[in-house]
Structures are given as C-alpha cells and as structure tokens.
Amino acid sequence: DANKSLLFLSFKPFKNSLSFLTSGNVIENQKHFSGIESKFSLRIPEKPDEDLCHLVPGQETSVADCSFNHTSKTFVVIHGWTVIGMFESWVPKLVKALYNREPDSNVIVVNWLARSSLHYTTAAHFTKEVGKDIAAFFDWMEEQFGYSLDKVHLLGYSLGAHVAGIAGSLTNTKINRITGLDPAGPLFEYAEASRRLSPDDAVFVDVLHTYIRGSPDRSIGIQQPVGHIDIYPNGGSFQPGCNVAQALRLIAEKGFQESDQLLKCSHERSILLFIDSLLYEEKPIIAYRCNSKETFERGLCLSCRKNRCNNLGYEVKRVGSKKSNKMYLKTRAHAPYKVFHYQVKIHFFGKRNITKRNEPFLISFYGTKKESENIPFVMPEISTNKTSSFLVCTEVDIGELLMVKLQWEKESFFSLRWWSTPEFTVRVVRIKAGETQKK
C-alpha cells in the first residue's frame, strides 16, 4: 500500500494515471515526463480562445483524443511574460489566422502562465525549463508516432521567442522553423547563444524586431540580430500609431485596464504584422536588406538582386547565408500594414555652392491606378551640384508612375525675380519603385 501511494503521487500531473500501471515500461515513460509543467493545448478553429483538449507527453491516448493530424504541419504558439497571469487577446487572433491560412494544420498553444506571471527576472530564468518541456514533448512525438519535426514551426513572442530557441537547441532532430516575434531584450541582449534565440536553433530562424528603443540593456525587444533573417519594421524602435495620444484615447474609452497598451503597442506589433502576412497573402509586405536604418531612410536599399529583398512573415523566402541578414521596411499605422517604397533622387544645380539643411518638401505621385498627393518629407541636406536621395512611401498602389509633382514648402529658391536668376535648378529626378523594381 505504501508503494502504491508513492506511485500515485508521482502520477498526479496526468489524467487517467491508473491505466498506466499495467506495464513497467509505461510507468517508466510516465516518470520520464513527470517534471513537465507546461501544458500543450491543441486549439480548434471554431473556438480559438478556449483550451478544450490537452496533449500530454507520455499519454498516447491524449494525441488521439485531441484529433491531432499526423500528416499536417504543426504551429506552436508560445506566449511571453505576462502581468495578468492570463492569455492575452493576441493569442486567439494568431490561432485563428494560422487556421485561416492552413486549415488542416495543428495549432498548439503552450501554457506556461504560472511561471511567466512571476517577477520578470524569475520568468526569464524559467525560459530554460519551458524550452526543455517543449523539446521533450516533440522528441516524444517523433519517437512515439514518427512525427517529423520538419513539419514543426514554433512562434515565440517576447520571452517566448527565447523559449522557442532553447526548445529548438534541445530537440534530437532540428525543428524546421522558428519565428521570433520581438524577442525580449532585458537579460538576453548580452547572453550567450545557448541561453537565447539564435540561428542554430532551427533549420530556419526569422525574427521581427518592433520595439528596440533605448540602450541595449534596457530595450524591451532585443536589438542584436538573432536569426537567419532579422527584420526591423520602421527601424524597429517605434511603430506608427503607437503614440501617447492613442493610448490616452484607449484609456478614456475602455478604462485603466488599457493603460499598458502604450508599452505593449510597438512590442505586440510584431504579432500583428505576422498575422497580416497570414491574412493578406495577395499583399505581401516586402523588406529590404540594408546595413543601417539611416541608409534605408535615404532610399539606398531598395534592391531585390541576390536575395536583397524578402517577404515579411509567413511567406518569407529562406536564405542559406550564415551571416544574419538585417532588413528594413516601412508600414502604416493599421492593417493591412503594407506600403509601397520609392527611392527619389534629385540632382540640384546652381552657379553658386549653396547648402541648406532640414528643408520641408511635399511630393505627389500620379500613376495608372491611383495618385498619392502631398506626401510630406524633410530633406536633411541639399546642396547645389549634388544628388540628394531619400525614401518616400505611399499607402496606395498607384500602378505605373506617370507624373511626379515636387513642392518646396518654404520660400521658393526656384522663383525667378527680374533682377536675379534662381539659386537652385532641379536638373534630374530619378525614381525607383521598390515593390516593382522599376526605374
């Protein structure tokens, strides 16, 4: 009787533990998984916000009971640090979007809420344990059912991105893909690769960085590249629409429970951009390889030659290079987030050498489909007899470019007075469309 009591205690975390007392091998199997605290909920498209069925490592019947599809790919959604100790509203949105794109797939939500709602430092420490849980689960799925890890795609947000990385580093066979959604920065920016997400953790690792403001050790999102492709929308530091006025309006409408939206807005934009890539297949968001945010802002990186541009999100094209590709793009403030990128080069001519700084302009594009008028931009520096380059984005697809209108906002140095010739003349305007690569 004493021995039986001990057995029952060790089986407590699992359902139907009595049925596993028939074989010594199965008892050993259950003991092997007794330390796993993370829960694996197989969600369904009809109820993406409910945990109706759990896959339990070591319990074969749970896989059949939850109707796991052994021939389809599996998406694994891993949440991050949470103050409220509950799933956040983005989880069912992502689950629904994944099923919308891949109806026959399995979408598993990993629940590590009990550990992730502790103090941040403690929760960050537990990423290793949760990563171990996920690795043990998929090693068991592969060994027990022959389920290929080539069908597995982990999607980790914030701390969850590092959980995904640790899981990928521990599985017996390499997981196919990990997507890091603004991986957490504090305690990970300077951590060795084994403790955080890195390119070695899966066959392919793609990362979105959307909130990397401040010094590296205090940035909410990790600043360094940690994947095969690292995409920095809007430079990665701040996302359009995530301003103080908008947060205050949310608080006024919905109360103080929305007060964390300002902090979360840019951080969670990584998830919303990935959801966008699932829902708007016909409008892929394009990112461009570039050495720096500043170079991109000058429109100097809108090339698609030799894999220099790529799709953001689900339909990203894999690249084989060992060195991380840093990529940049602009988005608008709300879904669908896609904008169209143009490089504008203007050669100013004049008889005297003149330089002016921070000059405000308006530019208008007229095309075969639509027009985009009076787009404001500031030219950091313009000089006579030099070419200035800058980036302009439109929210609408104008089609083939037919005409450009350029307007200098201040007093016009182009104006011809009867006693003088103009100080500046525009000699050449060159425009390149990033999305079509046409010049």
UniProtKB/TrEMBL annotation:
Question: EC top class, in one word?
Answer: hydrolase
Q: Does this entry carry the keyword Flavoprotein?
A: no
The family line of this record is:
Belongs to the AB hydrolase superfamily. Lipase family.
Q: Where is the active site?
A: S158, D182, H267
Q: Which positions are annotated as binding Ca(2+)? A: R196, D201
Q: Name one GO biological process term.
A: very-low-density lipoprotein particle remodeling
Protein's membrane topology: Peripheral membrane protein
Query: Can you say what this protein is called?
Result: Lipoprotein lipase
**CDD domains in alphabetical order:** Pancreat_lipase_like (cd00707)
Q: Predominant location of this chain?
A: membrane
Origin: domain of life: Eukaryota
The listed locations are: Cell membrane; Secreted, Extracellular space, Extracellular matrix
What high-level taxonomic lineage is stated for the organism? Eukaryota, Metazoa, Chordata, Craniata, Vertebrata
Per UniProt, residues of the PLAT domain are 340-439
Q: Which GO terms describe its molecular function?
A: apolipoprotein binding; heparin binding; lipoprotein lipase activity; metal ion binding
Keyword check for Iron: no
This entry's Enzyme Commission designation comes to: 3.1.1.34
